[in-house]
Automatic annotation (TrEMBL):
One Pfam family matching this protein: Guanylate_kin
Recorded family membership: Belongs to the guanylate kinase family.
Keyword Mitochondrion on entry: no
HAMAP family, per the entry: Guanylate_kinase
Entry's Gene Ontology molecular function annotations: ATP binding; GMP kinase activity
Matching InterPro entries: GK/Ca_channel_bsu, Guanylate_kin-like_dom, Guanylate_kinase, Guanylate_kinase_CS, P-loop_NTPase
GO-annotated cellular components: cytosol
Protein name per UniProt: Guanylate kinase
Keyword set, alphabetical order: ATP-binding, Kinase, Nucleotide-binding, Transferase
EC numbers for this chain: 2.7.4.8
Gene3D superfamilies associated with the record: P-loop containing nucleotide triphosphate hydrolases
Transmembrane intervals: none
Length: 195
């Protein structure tokens, strides 16, 4: 088992608006605590893109297999984006936890709501932007998005932030200064188990 494992073994659910810096933050956590964390690998019915690997980027399954797993209650959350289905299987989380890894889930708001209703006992972190303007700057800064997609993501961000204000997360971290936000995340992740 990794010597660096957090005392609280529950999976950590990280959510927040697209472009807020979730990936940047948990990748820092992974690199500063090697072999300790693992990102939960989702199932999808979409085809692998060049360079993607089965079991690494996604578990690629047929629609039939996916729906069968849904019927058996095998997913803690699942959703459809475009024509494709995506989900986090209970087994993936349990297997990784049993292997001695601290499991991190990067999911959007609807997924968070489903996990909260599931049998999985998790810790919830919301990453918030310092301001709407800064979030927009970061989305544009990635330069991977078309204007229409940026507008959609900003509209969705407003919903996510409103949801976070209802107090459903264990912690909200404002990602203003990256190193400061990182320290807050690390402190939360390594906090003693609270009863
Ligand atoms: N504290 C910060 N200050 C300034 N820029 C930051 C900060 N954190 C992240 N960024 C930048 O913001 C951009 C978006 O970050 P990132 O891709 O990690 O977001 P994300 O929340 O994982 O998005 P998505 O959900 O769409 O994958 C990146 O260009 C990243 O370098």
């Amino acid at each position: 088992m990794a010597p660096d494992l957090p005392p609280d073994r529950r999976p950590i659910v990280i959510s927040g608006p697209s472009g807020v810096g979730k990936g940047t933050l948990y990748k820092l956590l992974f690199s500063r605590h090697p072999d300790t964390f693992t990102l939960s690998v989702s199932h999808t019915t979409r085809s692998p893109r060049p360079g993607e690997q089965h079991g690494v980027d996604y578990h690629y399954v047929s629609k039939e297999t996916f729906l069968d797993l849904v019927a058996k209650g095998g997913f803690v959350e699942h959703a459809q984006f475009g024509d494709n289905l995506y989900g986090t299987s209970k087994m993936t989380i349990e297997e990784q936890t049993a292997k001695g890894k601290a499991v991190v889930l990067d999911i959007e708001m609807e997924g968070v709501k489903q996990v909260q209703k599931s049998s999985i006992d998790a810790r919830y972190v919301f990453i918030a932007p310092p301001s709407d303007e800064e979030l927009e700057r970061r989305l544009r800064g990635r330069a991977t998005e078309k204007e229409e997609s940026i507008q959609k993501r900003l509209a969705q961000a407003k919903k996510e932030i409103t949801y976070a204000k209802t107090g459903v997360h264990h912690t909200i971290i404002v990602n203003d200064d990256l190193e400061k936000a990182y320290k807050e995340l690390e402190e939360f992740v390594y906090a003693p188990v609270s009863s």
